[in-house]
Specification:
By secondary structure, the protein is of the alpha/beta class. The chain folds into two domains: about 5-140 and about 300-330, 3-Layer(aba) Sandwich (Rossmann fold); about 150-290, Rossmann fold, CATH 3.40.50.10750. The protein has 13 helices and eleven strands. It has helices at about 5-15, 25-40, 50-55, 75-85, 95-100, 105-115, 130-140, 180-200, 220-235, 245-250, 250-255, 275-290, 315-330, and strands at about 15-20, 40-45, 65, 120, 150-155, 165-170, 205, 240-245, 270, 290-300, 305. The longest helix has 19 residues, at about 180-200.
Length: about 325
């Protein structure tokens, strides 16, 4: 059974309710049909019934719940609740109403906040900022978490590295240039996520262009400091660095470059020093190695809210919904 098939099976065992607010996109409708047919999750679609009917032509979404913000009896309650949540920011009743009626992502997050749904998947036709801003304003960060970060779950075919070709790449979608403390927090969140989704021991490499002092530069110093912080704050995880990519995953290279490391040559969680490296890295592996890339999936929000690549396929959406459902099981 493939990794994503395993995730889907876990999602079926404790079915959660996931909101898909981008009902203007036919890929969402195609994915909804697949999700409902496979029994992966219950789906809530947000939008006007007539618009959804047009956009879903050819797809069977009859088992989805449709909520029209303009006519739903829930809307007044959600407006009042949103005003209460954002009262310190001076949000008015009219402003809250405008947000909920014009930006369905706000409506989706309010459904999660009020316990009517377990997670949200968006981003097929909206930016990461438009997806995550409402989540951070309404659902907020997970208690005890320093920051929200994003990862891609990579499944590389015919690969003996990592966990039989399965890796987490972080941060590959959100945190631009984390300082050492934030980089250490990304490592810990990614280890926790790997344990949840892959159900194997996370082995975390903090990546650099240097291995154990082979180069000297402020960029290397940042990673060295992050490793020190991570080992002190998160001793429950195997985290080491700084490591070049080959030293992190190839045992033969690790034995010469970092012979005393318990991580080198075995890493399955790769923490990149900045967003440029992480984003370029996942796309290289996705395109050149024909890897499956699920994400960007977020970690650190109090309930799962996940972003999609705007180039995603309907199958990608199904996979991210399944991952979101499994995350929700652990909430």
């Amino acid at each position: 059974m493939s990794f994503i098939d395993t995730i889907k099976e876990r999602a079926r065992q404790d079915k959660k309710t996931i909101v898909l607010p981008e009902t203007m996109d036919r890929r969402i409708m195609e994915a909804t049909e697949k999700i409902l047919k496979e029994g992966i999750a219950n789906i809530i679609l947000i939008g006007k019934e007539e618009d959804i009917e047009v956009n879903s032509q050819g797809f069977d979404i009859s088992k989805a719940t449709i909520i029209n913000p303009f006519s739903s009896p829930l809307t007044d309650e959600l407006i009042e609740k949103l005003v209460e949540i954002r009262k310190n920011k001076g949000l008015t009743h009219e402003e809250a109403k405008k947000l909920l009626l014009e930006d369905y992502m706000y409506y989706a997050c309010m459904l999660v906040k009020t316990g009517r749904a377990d997670g949200v998947v968006s981003g097929a036709c909206h930016s990461t900022a438009n997806t995550l801003r409402p989540a951070l304003q309404i659902i907020k960060t997970k208690p005890g978490t320093l920051l929200v970060s994003a990862f891609f779950l990579m499944v590389v075919p015919d690969c003996n590295y990592g966990e039989n070709g399965t890796f987490i790449f972080a941060d590959s979608g959100l945190e631009q240039n984390p300082n050492p403390e934030r980089l250490a927090a990304i490592a810990a969140s990614s280890a926790e996520t790997f344990q949840l989704l892959v159900q194997k021991e996370p082995i975390v490499a903090m990546l650099s262009h240097s291995t154990m002092g082979s180069a000297s530069h402020p960029d290397v110093d940042k990673v060295v400091e992050a490793v020190k912080i991570a080992k002190e704050k998160y001793p429950q995880y195997k985290i080491d660095g700084e490591l070049q990519l080959d030293a992190a995953i190839v045992p033969e290279v690790a034995s010469s470059k970092a012979p005393n490391s318990k991580v080198a040559g075995r890493a399955n969680v790769l923490v990149f020093p900045d967003l440029d490296a992480g984003n370029i890295g996942y796309k290289l592996v996705q395109r050149l190695a024909k890897a499956e890339a699920y994400g960007p999936v977020t970690q650190g929000i109090a309930a799962p809210v996940n972003d999609l690549s705007r180039g995603c396929s309907s199958d990608d959406i199904v996979g991210v919904v399944a991952i979101t459902a499994v995350q929700a099981q652990n909430k």
